[in-house]
Design a protein that fits this description.
This protein is mostly helical and 80 residues long. The protein has one domain: lambda repressor-like DNA-binding domains (434 Repressor (Amino-terminal Domain)), CATH 1.10.260.40. It contains 5 helices and no strands. The longest helix has 25 residues. It is globular and about 25 Å long. The mean pLDDT is 87.
């Protein structure tokens, strides 16, 4: 049962990461520019987008603010 929960969480994180990449590229931001504006490390952005880490809700909110997308919109897009 635990593996099933992890699979669901990994799937959500994967789709969120895909949406972050898509939105970042749409508005023409580099990893470094997004990181600078969100007050995060460039490596953090890279790890999130490559699905190698699970970001905290606070990190996601910082990214959403820079990308000018609400968390609700990001989650809604994730479910499509």
């Amino acid at each position: 049962m635990r593996n099933s929960k992890y699979h669901i969480e990994a799937n959500i994180v994967s789709k969120l990461a895909d949406e972050i990449v898509k939105k970042r590229k749409e508005i023409g931001l580099s990893h470094q520019k997004l990181a600078d504006e969100a007050e995060l490390n460039r490596s953090t952005i890279s790890l999130i987008e490559s699905k190698k880490c699970i970001p905290s809700i606070f990190t996601i909110l910082k990214i959403c603010k820079v990308l000018e997308i609400s968390l609700t919109d990001l989650l809604y897009k994730e479910k499509r």
